[in-house]
Amino acid sequence: MKKQLRQQILARRNDLAATVREAKSEIIVKKVLELPAWQQAGIIMSYVSFGSEVATPPLIKAALAGRKRVAVPLCVREERRLIASEVLAFPVDLEPGTWGILEPKPESLRPLAPEMIDLVIVPGVAFDRGGNRLGYGAGYYDRFLAFLRPGARTIALAFAEQIVPDVYPEPHDRPVDMVITDAEIIEP
Q: Where are the transmembrane segments (predicted)?
């Protein structure tokens, strides 16, 4: 069920023209920058967009320009976990890593404890109105989010085409506090 949904929504997202994804990403980024949760956060972690995902470079650059501390994930495949690593220069501190996604270079690795992070921008394939997310299937984010301190916010970015009635969450799946799309803000 999840595998089929993942394939279906990825195909739907990949079918969006690059210009459409770009325009939708701009709308989503603008919404994020206006959020009190964003404005109040001192330390932010954001995924670095890849392929047809909602583009995060403008968010990362805005955070750095706004003197926020910014972390991006480093995938530790052998342990199936993420390390939040602080970025001082974007994208200079990064190089293609796991799955070709930009990650911190070894000499730029600056681990941040998850408990320090105020806001996490979370990727995903599909989302429902309960804030449940269907990720890429490896569970990296579900495990990482479990270590955030109480009160830290989690926000997913998605195109309207990624919202579905049900992502079939399991007990270990961690919902997000908010899903921001080009069409709406979903707050479960």
A: none
pLDDT digits (tens, 9 = 90+) for 63-102: 999 999 999 999 998 898 999 999 999 999 999 997 899 9
Q: Which residues of 98-130 are buried (b: 16+ CB within 10 A; e: fewer)?
A: eeebbbbeeebeeebebebbbbbbbbbbbbbee
Is 133 marked as a binding-site residue?
A: yes
168 is in an annotated binding site: no
48 is in an annotated binding site: yes
* DSSP three-state, residue 48: coil
Q: Is 30 annotated as a binding residue?
A: no
In angstroms, the Cα distances linking 115 to 39, 45, 118, 144, 146 are 19, 11, 8, 10, 10
Give 178's strand partners: 155
* Amino acid identity for residue 181 in this structure: T
